[in-house]
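Sequence, please.
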């Protein structure tokens, strides 16, 4: 079976990398040939750092126009695909011309998204329409599924496929070297730096008694007054080693509708690397983290401070929670366990149209 996936980004974007690129090999072993066609390449991430703002907007608009033209040309050459998958949208902010064309083809098409993009400006009506047009809708968690089921052609056309990790690539960490500051770690895109600012006050207070550094693996890092912040550049080759270097992984989130649509990738990366986790009990985070079993949850500044202080002071607790996290990801969120289900869902979509 041949599947063409029109992804949001190339390998640099975490959603496209984990939900599509990482599946290429396992799906091939199951008889599914997956071709990915990214909309935005690595240059898109570089453009987001351009200053001043007006220049950035102009360059992004020009780049997006070029990439839209490339995608339109590529869209006309999918006639041999048994299934077409669209990550989020074919052409963001434009009408659903491409998706309507896909719906008229003989072969089926599948919509996939792992963020609550229906909450962003100009996208609510379009995402409702795309759910109706698609033969199958795949989402990253139950919060997104509830939205999709309200608008899909049938509730059974919606399936939850969580973001999963390759537990053979991200292995448990070695013990931390002695006599160095504790490393509180966060990995992600700059667009999510605001969530890290929720930790400013707890980390400042903790730093008064415990030498620590907040290590941010991304394109740059936010400034948090009174907190030692270390920026580490992200690379795909170094991603696993960077997460293994954390003493504690964190995933703070504000409790809002957008955050409840997230899929907990930061937690799963730390679980796989054998790193204990503290997270906000928002959305899927509260489903992934079982307090005292594989991590800790925190909401207020006081809870964040106490959870981090407790972990940093208690090495046996860190080891126990890390082992629990590793078991969680191996048993429920590993690439090898989910690849057959993804392949089966793709085949079901093809069979339903035929």
């Amino acid at each position: 079976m041949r599947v063409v996936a029109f992804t949001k980004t190339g390998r640099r974007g975490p959603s496209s990398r984990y939900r599509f690129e990482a599946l290429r090999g396992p799906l091939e072993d199951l008889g599914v040939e997956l071709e990915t066609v990214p909309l935005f390449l690595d240059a898109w991430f570089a453009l987001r750092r351009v200053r001043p703002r007006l220049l950035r907007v102009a360059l992004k608009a020009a780049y997006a126009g070029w990439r839209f033209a490339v995608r339109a040309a590529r869209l006309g050459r999918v006639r041999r695909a048994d299934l077409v998958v669209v990550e989020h949208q074919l052409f963001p902010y434009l009408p659903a011309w491409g998706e309507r064309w896909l719906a008229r083809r003989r072969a089926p098409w599948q919509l996939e998204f792992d963020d609550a993009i229906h909450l962003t400006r100009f996208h609510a009506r379009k995402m409702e329409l795309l759910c109706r047009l698609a033969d199958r809708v795949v989402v990253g968690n139950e919060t997104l599924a509830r939205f999709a089921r309200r608008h899909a052609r049938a509730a059974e056309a919606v399936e939850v496929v969580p973001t999963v990790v390759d537990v053979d690539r991200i292995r448990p960490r070695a013990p931390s070297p002695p006599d160095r500051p504790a490393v509180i770690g966060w990995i992600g895109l700059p667009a999510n730096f605001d969530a890290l600012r929720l930790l400013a006050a707890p980390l400042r207070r903790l730093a008064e008694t415990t030498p620590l550094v907040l290590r941010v693996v991304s394109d740059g890092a936010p400034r948090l007054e009174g907190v030692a912040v270390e920026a580490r550049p992200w690379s795909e080759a170094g991603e696993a080693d960077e997460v293994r270097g954390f003493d504690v992984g964190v995933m703070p989130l504000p409790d809002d509708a957008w955050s409840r649509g997230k899929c907990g990738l930061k937690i799963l990366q730390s679980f796989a690397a054998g790193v204990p986790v503290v997270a906000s009990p928002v959305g899927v985070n509260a489903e992934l983290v079982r307090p005292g079993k594989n991590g800790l949850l925190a909401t207020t500044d006081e809870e964040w401070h106490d959870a981090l202080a407790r972990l940093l002071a208690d090495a046996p607790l860190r080891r126990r929670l890390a082992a629990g996290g590793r078991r969680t990801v191996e048993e429920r969120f590993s690439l090898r366990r989910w690849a057959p289900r993804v392949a089966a869902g793709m085949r079901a979509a093809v069979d339903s149209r035929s």
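Residues 2-164+334-353 form a domain with the Rossmann fold fold (CATH 3.40.50.2000).
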